[in-house]
Amino acid sequence: AQSVTQLDSQVPVFEEAPVELRCNYSSSVSVYLFWYVQYPNQGLQLLLKYLSGSTLVESINGFEAEFNKSQTSFHLRKPSVHISDTAEYFCAVSGVGRAQKLVFGQGTRLTINP
Amino acid sequence: EAGVTQFPSHSVIEKGQTVTLRCDPISGHDNLYWYRRVMGKEIKFLLHFVKESKQDESGMPNNRFLAERTGGTYSTLKVQPAELEDSGVYFCASSQEGGSGNTIYFGEGSWLTVV
Q1: Is residue A1 less than 8 Å (CB to CB) from chain B?
Q2: Among A4, A32, A90, whose Cβ lies nearest the Cβ of B100?
Q3: In angstroms, what CA-CA distances link B99 with A44, B91, B102?
Q4: Which residues of B touch A99 (CB under 8 A)?
Q5: Which A residues 69-88 touch B at CB under 8 Å?
Q6: Is A48 on the interface with B (CB under 8 A)?
Q7: How far apart are CA A59 and CA A53, in angstroms?
Q8: A49, A100, A103, A109: best to mutate for the B interface, most B CBs within 10 A
């Protein structure tokens, strides 16, 4: 079984400041890792995912996450946030192989202040 | 290409009534999932269809919940009778046949309030 912990339920930051949203996971088997984002009044959208290869993965809007196997972490970072990044962010894990369910963390609400 | 669509977007029903949520996955996606987020909690898996077959229904909370996917296209999730604790957002998602690395696409959710 897998589990995901997002240590911060809310993160307020100022516009153009850097941000890190923390995610740790637990699993006895190999995993794939995901970050999903939910903007206000919208559904969940995939932000980025780690399947294999380079441990640093990037999204098209400037976010990046690094898979750290030894620390079982997959923290999400952005060097400079914008108002439009205001959303709730979810870290998720799945097993490897045939299509499997996602196990989500509790979510982190990112609030950007001008 | 249309995304995952869910209906209704919002529903308010009384305790004891029945509600049926519908999900239309992305065309051609064999995998269809239902998830739920109760207020303040994490998003939890309910069940997974591969075409019309239930692959995994380990997350279904109790026998008041019934999911179907006749013909392997759209799916319905019925709650009967609804209880107060069933309030939350019900997400449907779909993905192509293949490994778990395939992107899972989510709908906008059906917000259910039981009063």
Answers
A1: no
A2: A32
A3: 20, 21, 6
A4: 31, 48, 50, 55, 95, 97-100, 102
A5: none
A6: no
A7: 16
A8: A100
Write the CA distances from B91 to A40, A45, B52, integer angstroms: 15, 12, 18
Peptide bond into A40 cis (omega under 30): no
pLDDT in tens, A74-108: 999 999 999 999 999 999 999 887 778 999 999 99
Length of chain B as a residue count: 115
**Rounded distance between C-alpha atoms, residue B40 and residue B51, angstroms:** 32
Confidence grade of residue B95 (pLDDT, cut at 50, 70, 90): very high
Q: Name chain B contacts of A96, Cβ cutoff 8 Å.
A: 99-101
Q: How confident is the model at residue A41 (pLDDT cuts 50, 70, 90)?
A: confident
B35-85 residue pLDDT tens: 999 987 899 999 999 999 999 999 999 999 999 998 889 999 999 999 999
Percent of chain B with pLDDT strictly greater than 70: 97
Taking residues A12-31, report their average pLDDT: 95
What are the two backbone dihedrals, phi and then psi, of residue A84, each rounded to the nearest 5 degrees? Answer: -70, -10
B78 reaches A (C-beta below 8 A)? no
Cβ of residue B39 closer than 8 Å to a chain A Cβ: no
Closest CA to A110 of A23, A34, A37: A37
